[in-house]
Design brief:
This protein is mostly helical and about 70 residues long. The protein contains 3 helices and 2 strands; from the N terminus they run αββαα. A hairpin with a 2-residue loop joins strand 1 (about 15-20) and strand 2.
Length: about 70
Amino acid sequence: MSIMPENILPNDVNEIEINGIKARKGSVAAALANAKILSLDSSTVNEKTSAKETIKKLAPTLIALELHHH
């Protein structure tokens, strides 16, 4: 058995609440995109600082989704 994105959030739903934390569609993708910015040598200091701040804001959602276990 596998779980597809639409099994978690149907196409017409943009967020879900997990343990009191609202998780929006795209939260994990945004965190991964910001992690990529951190890993690129071509990213500026300002870009990396902004990426870190965004990841910090997303951290409660990522924890609610249990991403940190993987």
